[in-house]
Amino acid sequence: MTNQLPTQQIPRTQWTSFFDSFSRQHEGWIASLEVFSTDLGAQQEADELPFEGISVDTTNDELQAVVISIGKPPVEHVTHTINQPKRVWLQRTSDGADESLEIEAADNSKILLRFRSPVPPELVDGVVRDR
Asked: Would you give the DSSP letter of residue 108?
């Protein structure tokens, strides 16, 4: 079992740069994506697929949505859009590895992106990924 540090909330003003950096650092990592809503409960959207990235959708410089892409197109690919996101949290292990990312929407639904094997950044720095 991995020891966890407290969850870190990412300030809204940093979301675009955070998601860009997070996506570059974790591209290709095996991840799962779950959606939690008051209407439907917990729903697994993707299980053990390669993480592609997270982007933001803006209109007139206003952030409207966050888009998560996971899987390998065209067969096993999931794109999930979080409309009107209001909070983003990053969960790290005790050794500093990014373990999961949670995004809360204005309707109080939550999206959880969880990595199968969190690894501290210094252990993967400079590693070349197969394409």
From this structure: S
pLDDT digits (tens, 9 = 90+) for 32-90: 999 998 888 888 889 999 999 999 988 777 778 999 999 987 778 999 999 999 999 99
Distant-in-sequence contacts of 91-94, Cβ < 8 A, 24+ apart: 91/4, 91/5, 91/7, 91/8, 92/4, 92/5, 92/8, 92/118, 93/2, 93/3, 93/4, 93/5, 93/118, 93/120, 94/2, 94/3, 94/4, 94/5
Helix (H, G, I), strand (E, B), or coil: what is residue 109? Answer: coil
Question: What pTM, to 2 d.p., does this model score?
Answer: 0.81
Question: Is residue 31 classed exposed, middle or buried when 0-12, 13-18 and 19+ CB atoms within 10 A define those classes?
Answer: buried
Task: Indicate the CATH number for domain 12-117.
Answer: 2.30.29
SS3 call for 19: helix
Per domain, the residue ranges of the chain are 12-117
Peptide bond connecting 73 to the previous residue in cis, omega within 30 degrees of 0: no
**Which helix (H) or strand (E) is 32 found in, with range?**
strand 30-37
